[in-house]
Design goal:
binds uridine-5'-diphosphate, 2 domains, 10 helices, Spore Coat Polysaccharide Biosynthesis Protein SpsA, Chain A, elongated, alpha/beta, binds magnesium ion, about 50% helix, 8-stranded mixed β-sheet
Length: about 325
């Protein structure tokens, strides 16, 4: 049994709500995945029971409108020892769903996996083997990523940008969900007082020891990606605003540069006027100059607005997610 050879020291009471500890928790955010759940559940059960008897699967139903919740409750009723279902009141998004899972999991090793079978459950023992060597985070590095080209390019650009802005080296494939983390990392994440955050970036920013293991990747077994291009753009903007002051700094630098240029241009104009070389041409350039500056001003007002909105959201202190019910065996 893998857990007995575990070199991580065991600290008590790190994650408050946990009373009965497990060796392994698998966290699965679920949003309209009825076609995938049956296969996912049986493949996960087969793999996990081969690793340890002390495991739990925590499914977070993120406001699914299909039969997902009913199916998850079925698994829970038939296998109450190993299945926990956290039902959220509506669709909050993958990150809030995972954070909800962090608040309720009991495993020493916490595994994140998508419900759509893009991450093969059979790779879990490889991830765990590396984890038990003593790493706090083990990333599943996708050998051959089965997603559209523009998504792969987009992910690479996001990682590049975040490395530049945060000044930390991010692990390859940080954007993939598939990973094992120590409960020490979960405990640290659970202490974050920010209301909304990208857990993957927060983990990278926290800087625990990490390693990668190459894993297979499949295309989505059934259904469609829950991320539209627009949702991905918004998510990236949110990461940028949530983790960096660079856009604000850019606004100040642009403003300062434009001010210097206009002072110099103004002085030049005054000199020309005094020397009597100015005639009455130049309305077009004047108009273009005004609209250009107005555009820049509006853009940066918008940038400032984004930060103000974020501060506003934070100080209201609304929960990141709301739990409807938890289906779980009595302890
Ligand atoms: N998901 C979720 N809430 C959402 C969107 C997605 O819980 O609002 C879940 C989804 O069910 C899946 C995982 O997050 O288990 C990853 O979603 P998806 O496969 O659609 O993302 P992609 O693989 O296209 O990045
Ligand atoms: Mg997917």
């Amino acid at each position: 049994m893998m857990a007995t050879t575990h070199p991580h020291e065991i600290e008590k009471n790190e994650t408050a709500p946990c009373t009965t500890r497990k060796d392994v928790t698998v966290l699965i955010p679920v949003y309209n995945e009825e076609e995938n759940l049956e296969t996912l559940y049986s493949r996960l059960s087969a793999v996990l029971s081969g690793c340890t008897a002390s495991y739990e699967m925590v499914f977070i139903n993120d406001g699914s409108a299909d039969r997902s919740l009913a199916m998850l409750r079925g698994f829970q009723e038939n296998d109450p020892q190993h299945v926990v279902v956290i039902d959220l009141t509506r669709n909050f998004g993958q990150h809030p769903a995972i954070v909800a899972g962090f608040h309720h999991c009991r495993g020493d090793a916490v595994i994140l996996i998508d419900a759509d079978l893009q991450n093969p459950p059979e790779e879990i023992p490889h991830l765990l083997a590396k984890f038990y060597e003593g790493f706090d985070v083990v990333y599943g590095i996708r050998r051959q990523r089965e997603d559209q080209g523009w998504r792969k390019l987009g992910s690479r650009s996001v990682v590049w940008l975040m490395e530049k802005l945060l000044g930390v080296q991010l692990p390859t494939d940080m954007v993939s969900n598939f990973r094992v983390i120590h409960r020490r990392v979960v405990a640290a994440l659970n202490k974050v007082r920010e209301q909304q955050y990208d857990y993957a970036l927060m983990m990278a920013w926290m800087g625990f020891s990490h390693a990668g293991v190459e894993v297979g990747h499949a295309s989505r077994a059934a259904g469609e990606s829950k991320y539209s291009t627009w949702k991905l753009v918004l998510l990236t903007l949110d990461m940028l605003i949530g983790f960096s002051d660079a856009p604000l700094r850019l606004a100040s630098i642009c403003g300062a540069m434009l001010a210097v240029v206009s002072i110099l241009a103004g002085l030049y104009q005054v000199a020309q006027r005094l020397l009597g070389v100015i005639d009455v041409e130049g309305y077009t350039s004047l108009f273009l100059g005004i609209t250009f500056l107005a555009g820049i001003q509006l853009l940066f007002l918008g940038v400032i607005g984004e930060y103000v909105a974020r501060i506003y959201r934070e100080i209201k202190g609304r929960p990141y997610y709301v739990v409807n019910r938890i289906y779980q065996q009595e302890e």
